Amino acid sequence: GPSPNFEELGLRTLSHPDPTIDKTDPGQLVIEISLLESVKISCKLIKEPDEDCQDKVNTKESGKKVKFSMTFSKPGNYLFALYARKKKEENLFNVYNYLIRYNPPEDTLTRKKKGGLFKK
């Protein structure tokens, strides 16, 4: 959820106001945040217990909005942490933490491994 710095820096959730996201489909997850132009934002994606998944996140800023698009290769719990600071400041603050529970149906996992939709 949000820290006190989240609102102080003028940040708002646009897509996912709940800090817990249950994801079952294998497609991308996109989290959108609105921010002031004077704020710099970054993120970190970790699969519990401590697997760095930063390469699974794409960040796209446009004006007063930032989109974080991410994909998940393995079921499990992920921590998506947002960090922000005013552009003139040095210190980054952890401003929001999401818990993403990725639990795809069994058949989507086996379908990927077998390489096709249809079984003979």
Shape descriptor reads elongated
Q: What's the SSE pattern?
A: HEEEEEEEEEH
β-sheet strand percentage: over 45%
How many strand elements?
9
Unreliable stretches covering 5 or more consecutive residues: none
Largest beta sheet, briefly?
A: 5 strands, mixed
Whole-number mean pLDDT: 90
Distance between the termini: 47 Å
Radius of gyration: 16 Å
| Separate helix tally | 2
Strand order of the largest sheet: 2-9-8-4-5
Structural class: mainly beta
Helix proportion range: 10-25%
Summarize the structure in words.
This protein is mainly beta and 120 residues long. Helix content is 12%, strand content 47%. It is built from two helices and nine strands, in the order H-E-E-E-E-E-E-E-E-E-H. The protein has helices at 4-8, 106-114, and strands spanning 12-13, 20-23, 29-34, 39-47, 51-52, 57-62, 65-70, 76-86, 93-102. Strands 2-9-8-4-5 form a five-stranded mixed beta sheet. A hairpin with a 6-residue loop joins strand 8 (76-86) and strand 9 (93-102). The termini are far apart. The mean pLDDT is 90.
